[in-house]
């Protein structure tokens, strides 16, 4: 899981570095690289993309693409560490959506955790003047669509191989990102090409290592480790981008992460 976290953190840091390029273009290159690697693996393992639930798979792909695009737009507007931390609000939206779509229930403990996390958002916005309303709206909407993704994956269930789900996602992202890039294409600088190519590679291995982690360890053990990405993002933001955080901002981030971790541990006990 640590390898997955590192891969995703480096990939997202590269996205922040490429902030002069249009976000649609970054989505296209990030998705295309992963799509190619997924198709190679699918062919090698003899896994077919044809079957049922295609509509749900495409829906998951579109929701994931919107979430990815908005996250890439957010890291251009607000500090890197803050963007990564706020994206972890997605379980709140997933829980609320699951009540409507999957007829699941939210316990009093979960509501308390959600309130704690949103308090962190308000604290972070109040203390960090670098977090503008545009960037905040991008990242919160990204977290919402990430929550939609979680619910759709639950709806799809275990009938589909993870590689199939990822391939549909990357296929949608490649198509949408590529189409929108045609209207606002900006030729990357020579030194940016290798970074663009690496986005798909880091994204693929991040997804692969995460899948492996969930296969060999319990969800309760692996899921909390995912929040280490926020810590790594804060460190990279400080070292690479010169981002600093005051006590109020750090407390806000801690409330967001703490609320989500308490939600995980509380759900495990139940």
Automatic annotation (TrEMBL):
Main location: membrane
Coiled coil: none
Keywords: Membrane, Transmembrane, Transmembrane helix
Membrane topology: Multi-pass membrane protein
Record's GO cellular component terms: membrane
PANTHER family the record matches: ACYL-MALONYL CONDENSING ENZYME-RELATED (PTHR22911), SOLUTE CARRIER FAMILY 35 MEMBER G1 (PTHR22911:SF6)
Membrane-spanning parts: 23-42, 54-74, 80-102, 109-127, 133-153, 165-187, 193-210, 247-265
Cellular localisation: Membrane
Protein name in the entry: EamA family transporter
InterPro entries, sorted: EamA_dom (IPR000620), EmrE-like (IPR037185)
Pfam families in UniProt: EamA
Keyword Signal: no
All residue ranges annotated as the EamA domain in the record: 1-124, 134-264
Keyword Disulfide bond applies: no
Gene3D superfamilies referenced in this protein's UniProt entry, alphabetically: 1.10.3730.20
